[in-house]
Write a structure and sequence with these properties.
This protein is of the alpha+beta class and about 280 residues long. The protein is built from 11 helices and 10 strands.
């Protein structure tokens, strides 16, 4: 039977109907069998730290500069699926294409191939021909060094954070723009209940432009993912008074930090954060 397509982002209306985007993502996530339903992401993906202690922007900055929303989407989903062994997965390109909402086989295969190429150039993955026309994707270390991937947190000095599956379950992968996703990852990497996101420093720390930082923070706040708790004062020579202020934020459930050995914050701060959660009108 002939299949008729009506656009790249919608399934065909005649003939065999392919699995939808949410269902495809659900099957991929379930295959990972992660008991805590979270994806560990090293901070090195956002910010690399050299042996001498100097820090530089990580691969995330390159993806944002290239407006590479689809490669980031596929990378995060691949990170969830590759949960053990040699951290590889063998799958059809059409499966990955459906996961990013493309149902035309020819266009989907081409789009996914371009996305994998971006990630290969950043030395985040390798790609090889698999059985049955599939591709085998193997995850590499998040720092872009090309080293083999290992589970984070196995030693000291290997900070990481957890991205919950609700990121996909609740459709945030579809709703958030690239700046919103970047700032969600940066906020999650703080691994604290309360934290600051100094917009004048983040471009140097993470390689994300001040414009993207501001857009991402506003978007997360509008959707009730990030809440502005208060302003804190600090000493500075950049103002006439010698005092400056900056916003203090907190992430709302389900993006509140998971236990990673960090010192516990006061219960009062967490309660105030939860009270401010929820989408803004």
């Amino acid at each position: 039977m002939t299949t008729t397509h009506h656009g790249l982002n919608s399934p065909p209306v005649q003939g065999p109907t392919p699995l939808g985007q949410p269902e495809t993502i659900g099957l991929l996530l379930n295959r990972s069998r992660r008991p805590n339903r979270t994806v560990p992401v090293r901070r090195a993906f956002l910010q690399r730290e050299e042996r001498d202690g100097t820090k530089s922007p990580g691969a995330l900055a390159a993806l944002v500069r290239r407006s590479a929303k689809r490669p980031l989407d596929l990378y995060l989903l691949l990170s969830a699926v590759t949960s053990g062994g040699d951290f590889s997965v063998t799958e059809w390109s059409t499966t990955w294409a459906r996961s990013v909402g493309i149902f035309d086989e020819t266009a989907g295969t081409a789009a996914v191939s371009r996305a994998w190429k971006v990630l290969r150039e950043l030395r985040l993955i390798t790609r090889a021909r698999g059985e049955g026309g599939k591709s085998t994707l193997t995850k590499l270390h998040e720092d872009g060094s090309g080293r083999p991937y290992t589970s984070p947190g196995e030693g000291l000095g290997d900070p990481y954070f957890q991205l919950p599956y609700e990121y996909w379950d609740n459709g945030w992968h579809h709703t958030l723009s690239l700046p919103g996703k970047a700032m969600l990852l940066i906020a999650s990497a703080q691994r604290k209940h309360t934290f600051t996101l100094p917009q004048e420093r983040i471009p140097d720390w993470y390689g994300i432009s001040a414009d993207s930082v501001g857009k991402g923070i506003r978007e997360l706040s509008r959707h009730g993912i990030l809440v502005h708790l208060e302003d804190e004062w600090f000493d500075t020579l950049k103002t006439r008074s010698g005092r400056g202020s900056r916003p203090v934020y907190s992430l709302c459930p389900p993006f509140t930090p998971r236990a990673l050995g960090e010192p516990a914050t006061g219960e009062g701060a967490a309660i105030e954060a939860f009270r401010g959660c929820g989408p803004k009108e």
